Amino acid sequence: MKPKVLVYSKVDPKVLDFVKQTCEVVYFEGLEEETFPTFLHELKDAHGILGAGLKVDDDLLKNAPQLKVVSNISVGYENLHLPAISARGVMATNTPGVLNDTVADLIMGLMLSTARRLPELDQFVKTGQWDSNLGEQYFGLDIHQKVLGIIGMGGIGSAVAKRAHHGFDMEILYHNRSRKPDAEEKYAASYCTMEELLQNSDFVLLMTPLTPETEKLMGEKEFSLMKKSAIFINSSRGKTVDEEALIQALQTGEIYGAGLDVFVNEPVEVDNPLLSMKNVVTLPHIGSATYETRYKMAMSAATNLVAGLKGETPTNLLNKPVNI
Ligand SMILES: NC(=O)C1=CN([C@@H]2O[C@H](COP(=O)(O)OP(=O)(O)OC[C@H]3O[C@@H](n4cnc5c(N)ncnc54)[C@H](OP(=O)(O)O)[C@@H]3O)[C@@H](O)[C@H]2O)C=CC1
Ligand SMILES: O=CC(=O)O
């Protein structure tokens, strides 16, 4: 008998076909309030789940006694309670690597958009405010030859360092839990403390996972250490930042601007002050959102899932289940 798998996010039909070769699939295309009870019902005899963002903790696992694999279609996995998953002998996987270049491309775009005020100036042109006396109202900041500080020099951080160093001639500083000799050699990246990084960078990129240690890693004190001309970029998770402190730093001119792909609440509330600031560029959490990369992520997650259900060790196993 084929193992039963619940796919709870929309994926390319080729990915579904791949999973169907070895599994019986129940497809949800996304979980809504109306479909969640059916999902819970189907979970009772499911062996695997595949999708993005579902909170998997002991409460959910109680409904899934047959479960063997939880496969996340994302690299971030703060939605997975690994101790509870491991205690029930279930494997958990994510999709690192395949999205690094796509997210790094977007981050360069965010840096350029914020420094050169691209969305604001696009509106100038489209609303007939283009004044032929090209004056300071169109000026922004250079990014080439500036200092980029990367907090979290992992897969994505390194892909940004590559672009910034080789493409934009930027100097790279980084802060991380462990030293990264590869980045130091290839991108001339200098390791430093958080404080040194914040004081000396023209652009500060936050790129750590969301963990108890990184929650509100950037707060009032950290923003106050940044240069007044500096730009803050967040493409990690909204909760790695104290959003109130960021708003305050932008309102008081403590920093020049911010480029944000992630927010504490997503979708962000329309009355969030960040949305009405000219010096803030906002995106709806789209770091990895290209056709090519979303396909690769879903296929990587499907491959992890199928491997786990066959009794093999998935390439991107995150935990050590008690019975393995
Ligand atoms: N906006 C978007 O669409 C996307 C957002 N993301 C987010 O980006 C995060 C990073 O992804 P990725 O680069 O693939 O992950 P990696 O695990 O490759 O890199 C994360 C880096 O952060 C470092 N780190 C972890 N904790 C701390 C800490 N307390 N202080 C300093 N550094 C720390 C790690 O250090 P060490 O090497 O020592 O472990 C590691 O080098 C994801 O977890 C996700 O939340 C990812 C994809 C898309
Ligand atoms: O935010 C996206 C991810 O892959 O993590």
Automatic annotation (TrEMBL):
Residues 108-287 form the D-isomer specific 2-hydroxyacid dehydrogenase NAD-binding domain. Residues 5-319 form the D-isomer specific 2-hydroxyacid dehydrogenase catalytic domain. Coiled coil: none annotated. The keyword Cytoplasm does not apply. Transmembrane segments: none annotated. SUPFAM superfamilies: Formate/glycerate dehydrogenase catalytic domain-like, NAD(P)-binding Rossmann-fold domains. Keywords: Oxidoreductase. InterPro entries: D-isomer_2-hydroxyacid_DH, D-isomer_2_OHA_DH_cat_dom, D-isomer_DH_CS1, D-isomer_DH_NAD-bd, NAD(P)-bd_dom_sf. Pfam families: 2-Hacid_dh (PF00389), 2-Hacid_dh_C (PF02826). The keyword ATP-binding does not apply. PANTHER family: 2-HYDROXYACID DEHYDROGENASE-RELATED, GLYOXYLATE_HYDROXYPYRUVATE REDUCTASE B. Belongs to the D-isomer specific 2-hydroxyacid dehydrogenase family. This is D-glycerate dehydrogenase.
